[in-house]
Every structure is written in structure tokens, then in C-alpha cells.
Amino acid sequence: MRKNSIKNIRVNGEVQKELSNIIRNQIKDPRIHSMTSVVAVEVAPDLKTCKAYISVLGDEKAKRDTMDGLKSAEGYVRRQLAGNLNLRITPQIKFILDSSIEYGVTMSKKIEDVTRKDT
To answer: Nearest Cα to 79, choosing from 19, 37, 20, 29?
Structure first.
């Protein structure tokens, strides 16, 4: 299976949807911030590994605590994923902090400020 095959794209979408559901509704760790979202998921073509890009809306402490909470819950998340998805192999999940949404909001504010000053 190639990296960008239709099957891989479909698996990525299903894993992303299930991860979002598990993080939002099933993990009871108080370290995980309520404004946590799964931005993207990349499942390897052999289905053994998965990179989950996580965005946290909050300060640095909230981001650090959320990533620590997700790292400690990796086994639980993988077990839940195995039960919810019908995959031959359940991938090993690696959570990666993604700050692209925060960067986009910051840039939008800067652009808005510059255009407001010009008018």
C-alpha cells in the first residue's frame, strides 16, 4: 500500500475520527485540556505506526500537561482504537504537538492590525 493510496487516506480519516472521540469522551485524565483537537493523522503504510498531530488551545503549561497526559494514556488509547476499528494491525500512536492553528490565528491578527492602521 502506497503512502497516498485511497486505502491509506481512508484509514487516516477513520483513525483521526476515532482518536478525536476517544480523547474528547473517554479519557478522564485531568491534565488533558478541554480544548484539545486532533489536527491530522498519518498512519504508516504498514499500519504499524501512527503520528497524531494534536492542537491545544491554551498556555504553555496546558500544552505540556496535555502532552504528558496523552503520552501516559497511549496504551489505553491504542486499546480503545483496536476495539473501535477493524484493522489488521492497531498502530503504535505517537502524539506530536501541532501549533499551526495558533500560528494562523496570530498571523491573522497581525494582518488585521496592519490593515487597520493603513485605513
So the answer is: 19
Structural domain count of the chain: 1
The Cα–Cα gap between 50 and 80 comes to: 15
Does residue 96 sit within a domain?
yes
pLDDT tens track for 28-41? 999 999 889 999 99
Inside any domain, residue 1 = no
pLDDT digits (tens, 9 = 90+) for 44-55: 989 899 999 999
Which domain, by its residues, includes 44? 6-118
